[in-house]
Amino acid sequence: MNPSYPVYPYIGKVQQSVTNSATFPPQHQDRQPGIEQLMDPRPIFDNPGYTGNGKLKGKAAIVTGGDSGIGRAVAVAYAKEGADLTIVYLNEHEDAHETKQYVEALGVRCLLLPGDLRIPDTSSKAVKLSVDTYGRLDILVNNAAVQPYTSSILDVSDEQLEDTFRINVFPLFYMTKAALPHLQPGSSIISTTSRVAYEGDEHVLDYSATKGAIVSFTRSLSLSLVGQSIRVNGVAPGPTWTALTVSTYPAEHQHTFGAKIPMGRAGQPFEMAPAYVYLASDDSAYVTGQILHVNGGNIRYT
């Protein structure tokens, strides 16, 4: 593995603090999805002190948006637990290949599928590729998203509103419908919602609405599939240092990003990943229809 990849500092059994406060330098990327390789500093997606215990050994997982950010951290954690991966992403090829290289160095297989999740056929192709290659599908992680920034609801165009829902919400239906015929009892569907589904954010109105929809989707789908012993849950991250952040907010916003959270800082992608491992493993066999809040201590979201 390339030693320049960001990993989490670890001494013995005591984890060092990532940062004492939000001190990211001002920066902005003009395209979504953003590019992780262009960020300064790079997000921390792996904690070398996290040792897998084979909780997902022999399983196969699809992770949308797995090229970078939280999706990349989830892919790495799943690889450590023994799962083979299929990563679906739009066009961030360098980030995706970097993730593939890192994951494969952990001893599992990794497939890459570039494609537009607004198109239902992308989901069908992802499932077919996974099943044809691995002979099974056990875990579906719906994580890909866009997050447009606007000053007012008057600035949310009809086109933007529709596109945000087509990217953030519609693929949950497409992926689930494609995956369901292949999921067995004990399989798990996990979707990424957000703290803004509970608290709101005046500058990402349409994004916040989609994340609320994901909460409702998760709860309703869990009721629909519980009889098949397929569990459906979600994770609601707090502010997390990812390419989505720097491609959303103005450059100066990054300097205090996460500072108002009780812990006084933004999270790093690797800090979200254990929640996804828990929800995919037998450790959560009695958990469905739930949202895990990994948010730096803001209890208002629970």
- Computed CA radius of gyration, to the nearest angstrom: 18 Å
Provide the helix percentage.
25-40%
Mean pLDDT: 92
The CATH superfamily turns out to be NAD(P)-binding Rossmann-like Domain
Could you give the count of β-strands?
9
Provide the CATH topology: Rossmann fold
Task: Please describe what this structure looks like.
It is built from 9 helices and 9 strands. The chain has a single domain, classed as 3-Layer(aba) Sandwich (Rossmann fold), CATH 3.40.50.720. The protein is globular and about 45 Å long. It has helices at residues 69-80, 93-104, 120-134, 158-168, 170-179, 196-199, 205-225, 243-246, 269-280, and strands spanning 10-11, 14-15, 60-64, 84-89, 110-114, 139-142, 188-192, 231-237, 291-294. It has a 7-stranded parallel β-sheet with strand order 5-4-3-6-7-8-9, with helices on both faces. A two-stranded antiparallel ribbon has the order 1-2. With 302 residues, the chain is an alpha/beta fold. This is SDR family oxidoreductase. Belongs to the short-chain dehydrogenases/reductases (SDR) family. Keywords: Oxidoreductase.
In short:
With 302 residues, the protein is of the alpha/beta class. The protein has helices at residues 69-80, 93-104, 120-134, 158-168, 170-179, 196-199, 205-225, 243-246, 269-280, and strands at 10-11, 14-15, 60-64, 84-89, 110-114, 139-142, 188-192, 231-237, 291-294.
